């Protein structure tokens, strides 16, 4: 990612149905390009196309088209350190297929297993629904 996630997170704070979020860049050895994955934890229910499109449209309008994630994906939980920080680097390593050491800093490390399923997402040039 060539920009900070704080820009994206500031926009997501305005969506009442979203409980938590995490954005990471995904680059694999076979791909020259990087794509952004945005993971959302919903307060209740499921992420639907309407909310997915609202999020993408708001990011595009308030930031730019290049800030719009390639994938906007619902997950059950977002990993955190014991200090209350999102663990972006470990999730990024997982979705990029890099070896990663979780260590003792994750307070909810069991949720990291869910992110392994996103390792083989197709590379897309624009936002994509999952």
What's the gist of this structure?
This protein is of the alpha/beta class.
Q: Mind explaining what this structure looks like?
A:
The protein is an alpha/beta fold and about 130 residues long. About 25% of the residues lie in helices and about 20% in strands. It has three helices and four strands, in the order H-E-E-H-E-H-E. The protein has a four-stranded mixed β-sheet, sandwiched between helices. A hairpin with an 8-residue loop joins strand 1 and strand 2 (about 35-40). The longest helix has 14 residues, at about 50-60. The chain is globular, with a radius of gyration of 14 Å.
Total number of strands: 4
Q: What order do the strands of the largest sheet run in, or round the barrel if closed? A: 1-2-3-4
| General form | globular
**In which range does the helix fraction lie?**
10-25%
How many helices in DSSP terms? 3
The overall average pLDDT, rounded, is: 87
* Spatial separation of the terminal alpha carbons: 20 Å
Strand and helix order:
HEEHEHE
Gyration radius, in Å: 14 Å
Q: Flag low-confidence runs.
A: 126-130
Q: Tell me the β content.
A: 15-25%
The main sheet comes to: 4 strands, mixed
Structural class estimated from helices and strands? alpha/beta
């Amino acid at each position: 990612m060539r920009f900070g996630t704080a820009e994206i997170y500031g926009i997501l704070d305005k969506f009442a149905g979203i409980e938590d979020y995490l954005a990471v860049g995904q680059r694999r050895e076979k791909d020259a390009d990087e794509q952004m994955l945005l993971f959302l934890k919903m307060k209740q229910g499921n992420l639907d196309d309407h909310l997915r499109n609202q999020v993408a449209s708001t990011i595009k309008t308030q930031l730019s088209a290049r800030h719009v994630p390639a994938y906007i994906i619902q997950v059950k939980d977002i990993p955190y350190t014991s200090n209350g920080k999102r663990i972006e680097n470990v999730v990024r390593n997982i979705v990029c297929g890099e070896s990663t050491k979780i260590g003792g800093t994750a307070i909810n490390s069991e949720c990291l297993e869910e992110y392994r399923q996103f390792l083989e997402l197709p590379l897309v040039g624009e936002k994509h629904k999952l």
